[in-house]
Amino acid sequence: MTSAAALCFASTVLHVQAQETETADVEVINVTGSYIKGVDLQGAQPLTIIDSEAIQRSGASSIAELMNTFGQTRGGEGSFSTAQSGATSTSTPGGQAAASLRGLGPASTLTLINGRRIAASSFAAGTQNFVDINSIPLAAIDRIEVLATGASATYGADAVAGVINYILKKNYVGAEINASYGNSTASSDEGKSNLNFAYGTDIGGGNLTVFADFFERNAFKATDRAETRQPLLANSYSYLPKGTPNIYYNSARDGNEIGSPDCATPLVTTEFGEQICAYYGNEDDYLDTPFKSFSSGFMFNKDIGELNWSTDFFYSRTQSTAYSSPSPINQLDDSEGPFVDETALNIYPDAIRDSLLDNLYIDPFDTQAGQELYGFQFDGRFATPRTIDIESNAFRLVSALSGSYDDWDWESAITLSQSKSEQVGVAGIYNRYKYHASLAGELCTDGSLASYDGNALNCAGGSLAGMYNPFLQNDATNEAILSLSQAQPTRDGKSTVYAWDFRATGDLFEFNQDVIKGAFGLEARKEKITDVPSENSRARFSNEYLVDVLGFGSSLSEASRSQWGAFAELYVPLSEQVQMQLAGRYDHYNDFGGTFNPKVALTYRPTDDLVLRASWATSFRAPSLTQVGVKLRTTTAAFDCSANQGVAALYCEGESSVRSNNVLELGNPQLKAEESESISAGFSYSPTKNTNLTVDYWYFDHQDIVDTDMTALLDRAMSDASVRFCGLVPEGQVGVSYDPDLCLVTDQAGLTIEEQGANLSEILTEWDAFDQPRFVELPLYRDHVLQLQNTGSQEVSGVDLAFDHKFDFDTASLTVAINATHYLDFERNKPGSDEIESLIGTWRYPADIANLSVFWDEEKYYLGLTAYYTSSYEDDIERLRGREIDELFDLGAINDSEQRDISAWTTVRASAGYYFENATLKLTIDNLFDRAAPIAYGSSRGFDSYNHNAYGTTYNLSLSYFF
C-alpha cells in the first residue's frame, strides 16, 4: 500500500512488496494489522508506513520529534513530550513522551516493536500507563507502520485507536555513522546534537546488526523569546510572589492584601483595588527541558537447519531535568497564609514598619514546639523553582524461533521488557515541618527540630539556627537557615513485562478456485508495575493527609496481573474481486475477567487500479495497573462550573469557570475494561504507477473511559450527605472536604452540611453572614478523595486523504504529495454531566490538519518543501478569571459572547540533501519563514504548546558516512 506518512515527510512512497532483501528470494513478511503471510494486503486496510528514507529526510533526532509531524498523532491533548512536562506533575512525567492516535490518549494507542509489546513507563500520565517513546532508539528503526483503526481482534488490549509498530533493522550488511546538529536561529542556544552508529555483518552463519545512539538537547525557556517572555495579560497573575511575600488579607485591618515593600517588580492593582506584589509563571517556564539519551543494542538472525533463530535486544538510558514554578507556602495544616513573628518587619525603616503595623492585626499563634508567638500571616512562594532530576533505564529482549511444518509457517517467542525510572527533587522543595520551625526560630543547625520546655528552646544536636525571615532578601545567614529545611524526595518506579507467544499461518482449504488462509495464535503475559515515592512525599491519613514536603507530591502504586489470549484470523476470497478478512480474539485477565473482540473487513477490487475497503471491529483497553493499584495519589482535580449550574451556584459564585483543588485519587480494582467500536471505509486508487490516492472515513465509539470526576462528586454532594465532611475525609471513604468551621452554621431547619436533607443554598447564605468570606461560595477545604471510575464516553470520526504524483524526467523526478485529516466529530460527555460537548473547533482540537510537500530528486541530490497546516480553533476564554476577561474586552480581543479564535498556523520546512560516493549531507530548516505561534490567551504560556511551538526558525544539519 502507498505510504501516506512517507508522503508527509518526504513524498517518498513505500510499497511493501518492493522491499529490498539481501537474497534473490522474495521475503514473505507481515504487515501490521494481520498475521497472515503470503497474501497481497496492499490497500486492504488504512495502513501507513514511514520508511527509512522518509525518517532521514524528516531531520528528526528522536522518535518523539518524528511523530510530532505525523498528522494522525497531532490534534488534541493525547500526544505529549517534554514540552508539556513539569517537575512535580503526575499527569505528564518529566523527560518522557508518548504518541497518541486520533487524540484518544496514549493509553488507547498500542505501541509495538517488531509486532510485540514493550514495557510501559512506570510513571503514568495521570493514571494512564503509556510507552515512553523517548526510550526507543531511532538509530535501530528501519520503518514505522501505523494502523489507525481498532485492532484488538489481532493484538489484544490497548489497540483502541490503533497500533504504532516500530520495525527494527534486519539483515543489515555494512556500517554507517550519522552525526547531526540543530539549533534555532535565535540568539539563545537550544542546540541539539545526535550521533549514532550502525554495523551489520554476516557472522557465525547468521547476521548480526549492532547500533548505538546518543542524543542531547539544551533547555528552551519562555524567557528566550520576546513572545513568551512576558504574560499576554497583566491580570494573569498569582497572588503568591516569589522571594519576598505579600501580607495576607486576613491580617490586614482593611481586609486587603498588602504588597511587599521590597517587591522586585511594580505592584499590581487587583480587582479588589489592592496593590500587591504579583507573580507570573513565564519567568520560570521551560518550554522544553534539557534532555539526554543513550541507547545501544543488537539484532541477530541465524538459520539452524530448517529453523530460524532471531534475537533482538536494546538498552536505553534517558536523563532530563524538569522545572516547575516555585512552590506556594501554606500553613502547617495546609491552609493559606502561614504566620511569621511580628519582628520580621524590623528589617524595614521605622516609617515603613510602623505604617505596616498600623494596618495589621498582630495575633497569637502556636508553633510546632508549643510556643505562643505574636505575628501576622503572609502570602508567598519560595524563590527557587522546583527542580527534579529524572533518569529512566529501559531494556527489551526478544528471542524467537520460527520455521515451517507441512506448508504452515510458525513462530514462537519470549519477551522480557523492563522500564525503570527515578526522580529526585534537587532544588525548590522544602520539609513542611522544618520550614515552619525555621519561621519560629525552632530549627537547629543540624536540621532537627528544637523542643520547648515551657521556658526555653532546646536542641538535641547542634544549636538554634535563628529565626528565618521570609521578608529578608539576599542575606547569606538568612538563606543558610532556609537551606536547613530543604528536602530531596525521591520517586522510584519499575514496569516489567514477561510474555510468550505462538503464531502459525498457512492455507486451510480451497474455496472459489482459491485458498482460504488462516492465522492462529496464543499469548501469555505477566505485567507488574511499582511506583514508590519516598515516605516524605506520601499522603497518609495518620498524618492528616499532609505530605511532609512542600512542592512535591506523588503516588504509591503497586499492581500486577496475568493475562492469556487466543486469536484466529481468516482470509476468505469470496470471489476474484472480493476478499474478506475475519478476525477474533479472546483475552482473559485474572483481575477483571475476559473479553472477546471481533473484526470484519471487506476488500473489493473492481479493477487492478482501484481497491474499495471497509472494516468493523471492537477493541478494548484494560484498566491500567496504575488505575487498579494506585493508593492516595496526590494531585489536583478540576471541576467545571459550566457543566453544572448547581455546582456553579454553590462553588463558583454562579460563574462558568473551571476551578482546581488538591485531591487524593484512589485506585479501583473493580474497574471494567474500556470498550470501543470502530468503523472505517475508503478506497485506494492508483491509475498509474506514479499516482496514488487514498481516502478513508473512520469512526470510534469509546465507552466506559476511566477517570475521576470532581464535578460529579460535587453534584452528588448536593443530595448525598454521605460524601460531605467538615474537615478531612475519613480514611477509606470518598468525599468532599469542607472548611471545618462550616459545621458551625446550619440551614433554616437546623441541619449542618454533614446531615442528610440539609439545604446547601441556605447554608451558603448563613456562611456568608457568619464568616464574611472574600468569595461567596461554600468553602472547600483540602484533600478531597476521589475514586477512579468508568465514567466517560467519546465519539470521534473523520476523514483521511493522501495523494501523491511523481513526474519523471530524463535524470530527475518531481513528486507532489498531500496528506490531510479532517475531524468530523469529537464528542464526549462533560465531566459531572450527561451533557455532550463537541470538541472539534474548540480549545486544542483543530478540525483540519494537513501537509503538502514538493520534492525534486536528482541522482546526486534532492530539494524539497513541506507545508504543515493546523486550522483555527477557539481560544480557552471561558476558563479565565473575570479580571482576565475584563482585560480582554478592554483590548478588544474577544467578542460580545466572550469568544475568540486562535489563528490557523502554517509553517514550511525546507529540505535538501546531497549524495557523495560514501556519504550523504542533509539539511532541514523548520518554520522557514519564522512564523510565530498564534496567540492563545487561554494558556498561561500565551500559545498552545500541543499544536504549536515557539521555537521560530530552526535548522538541522546531518552527515552520514557509509563504510
The biggest sheet amounts to: 22 strands, antiparallel, barrel
What is the CATH homology-level superfamily of the largest domain?
A: TonB-dependent receptor, beta-barrel domain
Radius of gyration: 30 Å
At the fold tier of CATH, the topology name of the largest domain is Maltoporin, Chain A
Please identify, by name, the CATH architecture of the largest domain. Beta Barrel
- Tally of helical segments: 13
How many distinct domains?
3
Proportion of helical residues = under 10%
Mean pLDDT: 91
By oligomeric state, this entry counts as single chain
Class by SSE composition: mainly beta
pLDDT < 50 runs, ≥5 residues: 1-28
Alpha-carbon distance between the two ends: 32 Å
| Shape by Cα distribution | globular
Strand content: 35-45%
* DSSP strand tally: 48
Name of the CATH class of the largest domain: Mainly Beta
